[in-house]
Amino acid sequence: MAFNAQTVDDMFKIMVERLGKIVPEAELRYKAELAVEVNRLKQEKNAVILGHNYMEPALYYSVPDYTGDSLGLAREAARTDKDIIVFCGVRFMAETAKILNPEKTVLLPSPKGGCSLAESITAADVRELRKQYPGVPVVTYVNTYADVKAESDICCTSGNAKQVVESFNDQTIIFLPDEFMAKNIAKETGKQIILPTKNPAKLKNSGEGVEYRMIGWSGKCEVHEKFTVEDIINVRRQFPDVVVLAHLECKPEVIDAADYSGSTTGMIKYVETTQAPRYLLLTECSMGDNIAAANPHKEMLRLCSIRCPHMNEITLEQTRDSLLYNRYVIDVPEDIRRRAKQAVDRMIAIG
Q: Among 7, 84, 98, 219, who pairs with 120 as Cys (CB 3.0-4.6 Å)?
């Protein structure tokens, strides 16, 4: 939630109080000037700013009207009455906001805002999978571009992936594109999984004789795939009482070695309620800074820090320029938007 400060001095004081142990004061003075300007432009242009949990702390705690994970921000995008939506996140998130708000201007502060997961699969790939496995519904992780969502039956986030998969009961599904999340969800739900890009085995079509219940893909998050079991072992050796939290995009063996796994929102809630003396987050490191700022009396270990290069493109300077120059405008062709919206609406409805 944006800080309610009208002057640079007031904004600076608030930012130092919240972020003084996270960001140097000299940097916060400069960031405070930008934040006040962004908030002024936001009011003048009747805009709402959505900030993903992976935004840098000085941005995350100063200008967004709403912060959260992909699912929470999609909900906010769906119900906003503002004329302009500025999405401080990556492109697929801004596309989702446009899918839900075709009549509104959606701006992405970065000209690219890529994502290794979103770029790991194309709409043509999904169509080919449908040909290979006719009649099998497609569940697509929200970390995909609009044209991929348009080829899907329903989207999901890390926060509701398990519920979405379980909504199909015993039916076989195609789960795209995150390989590790597919394996983790398959384990949680008791489904077997095949990866067509790695395993040439074919799906049987004979009712109870279906051999596999989930068909995955080989996409990976370039941040979460870097965490290893060795990281956890090394940290536990130094701090035996640490609680380890891992995002569902991590490798299955990392999830098994952690104490908790879930979405970004789930990790935030866990830290808020845990009585553990210290914790380690295996996720994007700016989110770790944001959690540490919100929980100053709990010790976060900073021994496994990896920054998403795409989220790192979004800065306060670019957010200001996005509003100042009305850039970069996100457009989704209407035929794609309409079909993608069905999949996104189903995701939001499941919650």
A: 219
Q: Around 101, how many Cα atoms within 13 Å sit in the side-chain half-sphere?
A: 27
What DSSP string describes 144-205? S-HHHHHT-SEEE-TTTHHHHHHTTTT--EEEESBHHHHHHHHHHHT--EE-TTT--PPPP-
Residue 342 inside a domain? The answer is: no
Crossing angle (nearest 10°) for helices 334-350 and 91-100: 90
Expressed as residue numbers, the domain containing 208 is 118-219
Residue 182 is assigned to a structural domain of this protein: yes
Return the pLDDT at 202. 54
CATH code of the domain covering residue 212: 3.40.50.10800
**Assigned token pair, 208:** 């109870």
Q: Calculate the average pLDDT of the chain.
A: 92
Asked if residues 76 and 88 have their Cβ atoms less than 8 Å apart, the reply is no
Domain count, the chain: 3
2 domain-assigned: no
pLDDT, tens digit, 9 for 90 and up, residues 277-314:
899 999 999 999 999 999 999 999 988 899 999 999 99
Cα angle 264, 269, 272 (rounded to 5 degrees) comes to 130
Q: What is the average per-residue pLDDT within 202-229?
A: 77
In a domain, 333, yes or no: no
